[in-house]
Amino acid sequence: MSMHFTMAWRNIWRNPRRTVLTVSAIAFACLVLIFMLSFQFGSYETMINAAVQIQTGHFKIQHKQFHENHNIRKTIAHPDAVAGILDKTAGVAAYTFRSRAFSIVSSEDRTYGALVIGIDPDSEARASRLPDLIREGQYLSDTDTDKALIGRLLARNLKVKIGDEVTLLGQGRDGSVAAAVVTIKGIYSSGQDDFDRAGLHIPLDYFQQVYTMTGQVHSVVAIVHSLDRVAEIKQQVQTRIQTLETGNLLIVRDWSEIMPGLKQAISMDLVSGLIFWLLLIIVVAFSILNTFLMAIFERTREFGVMMAIGTAPSRLMKILLTESMFMTVVGMGAGIVLGILVTLFFQTRGIDIGGASELLNQYGITGRIYPKLSVLSTAVGPAMVFVITFVAALYPALKVRRLNPVEAMHFA
Amino acid sequence: MHTIRTFLVMVSFFLIMPGAGAFAEDMSARDLIESCWDYMRGRASESLVDMTIHRPEWERTMTIKAWTKGRSDSLFFIKAPPKDKGNATLKKGNDMWTYNPKVNRVIKLPPSMMSQSWMGSDFSNNDLAKSDSIIQDYDHTIESTHTRQDKTVYVIKSMPKPAAPVVWGMQRITLREDFVLLEEIFYDEDLEPVKQMTTQDIAPLGGRLFPSVWKMFKTDTPEAYTQLEYRSLTFTDDLPARLFTRSSLKNPPR
């Protein structure tokens, strides 16, 4: 038993150059796959986090009917009770209250329909990136009342600058006319055109006053510590909210339900990634198959001699498979180690993507992407390489069984 | 000579008859709608209306003073409740302005707002303005007629003309031979009914028979509706043009 291991090990190092080439091909495939997968997962996480930190949060609590038709009357009547639940739920990093109403927004000479969003400046800063997105002017402070932040594109459409006045005209919760004049304090740009065109943010207290909905909000937006735990935390919150007085009217939805487009974009990107890996693996498979086959041709005389001195074809086959296994294991080992090292290197440094990717820009990512090493991203690539090299090795190994010793020994 | 001319007229009349028949029917449907709209709108009018927005869990009533002139000018003032008093809307042609006393500003509404709901009601700005769109942008055919209380009632199907800038896929209008509007149903592109308006309590009002209650609701939620109830209505031959200017928004005439 141990003899064919020894023979296999010696065989592969009899032609070090050939072995090193094969091993490097396998190692390289593993390295690339580990890095690519980690990069892809990392970019998705960056994408999701960037997107949720602009608008939706990791999950969001709303009145069931508000979610359906954005009827201003369908509020969360006791936001503090919901806040109490979130305070007690482990894993929730931050949360904030928001209200919104579709209104007519008018500057000196332009009028647009837009979303007026009431935010609590303090907790909003913890739960979203809004303060970081301010490109001109300043973020809202706690004492501000009739001040507003406005999206870059809406500001451009309305032709307003910092310090200009904008008239809001909408409908309050009691059906009355809601009207206010606010001064632009800051202009934000998220990179997401929809968001930058959609609306303007005013302090929540002021919103509640203008739209006559004192003490009530439309949504509670929460951010969690780890993206992997969103589903679990959402479930917990959902269960606990049912115990509230009006809890059965509320609904908790996570980012993938709020932004199905983002989820679909990710799935599509994943599929195109899969196709790329598949091509890569096919190339690797053929190069491995080629080295193995070449080895057989070069060593035909050797096999003939071995058969002539009584080596059974099955044993020869075993030796050949063991050889390929050794090379695969060494290659995979080296590839995994290198892959992890390279990925970890970029995971700490980040990769500058500049304005390269339109898809990413659309979700507000313009800076660096950090690959994310995980058990999954480390295991999937090498596992595929293992399967493919085994299949590639099987063909020459089976071919050896059909060799005729005499002919083989005379093989030129 | 005379007989020859008569003969020629007769022949040409018969020759164009089939086309003329369809044309006449088409014209009469269009005429009915046009006469109905003119009848309901009058040359100029002044009215006081209670608008009730009813929802299953909530209800709110506003009192509105309205002036209309011709086919395209109108001016609305909210009189009550006190919170909304002084809000005003002016429509002139296809342009529309709204005024809010709290912020003391006149805002010009973009044309896209014309099909939006007015003051959160089930009526759109277009509905309230009884806009001419129905006459200009639709082809009309009389679908059926029947008799109700000794009066002929016409059901007219109005399909939008190709490329007409309208939001509805079809409208079905029911009106009486004396041009009193009874019902208007709005359909989407799949010809499913979306919302409908019915009128009730037809009584002498402003010197003519006029429905004093108008009710608009979405077809699938009849329990949520908006009702207009005329408290008073006067038709006049004319109103001064200066009434329908932006300065009237800030200074309501009486």
Description:
The complex is a heterodimer of chains A (412) and B (254). Chain A has 412 residues and is an alpha+beta fold. Helix content of chain A is 57%, strand content 19%. Chain A has helices spanning 2-12, 16-56, 64-69, 79-88, 121-127, 130-133, 152-158, 193-198, 204-210, 230-241, 255-258, 260-298, 300-308, 313-349, 358-362, 375-400, 405-409; strands spanning 59-63, 92-106, 111-119, 134-137, 147-151, 165-171, 177-188, 199-203, 219-224, 250-254, 351-352, 368-369. Chain B is α+β, with helices and mostly antiparallel strands and 254 residues long. Chain B has four helices and 13 strands. Chain B has helices at residues 2-41, 125-128, 133-136, 246-250, and strands at residues 44-55, 58-69, 73-80, 88-92, 95-100, 105-109, 138-148, 151-160, 170-176, 181-187, 193-205, 208-218, 225-236. Chain B has a 13-stranded antiparallel beta sheet with strand order 6-5-4-3-2-1-13-12-11-10-9-8-7. The longest helix of chain B is centred in the first third of the chain and has 40 residues, at 2-41. Chain B is globular. Classes of the chains: A alpha+beta (412), B alpha+beta (254). Chains A and B meet through strand 3, strand 6 and strand 7 of A and strand 6 of B.
Sheet with the most strands of chain B? 13 strands, antiparallel
Number of helices of chain A: 17
The main sheet of chain B orders its strands as 6-5-4-3-2-1-13-12-11-10-9-8-7
Annotation field: number of helices of chain B: 4
Briefly characterize the structure.
The complex is a heterodimer of chains A (412) and B (254). Chain A has 412 residues and is an alpha+beta fold.
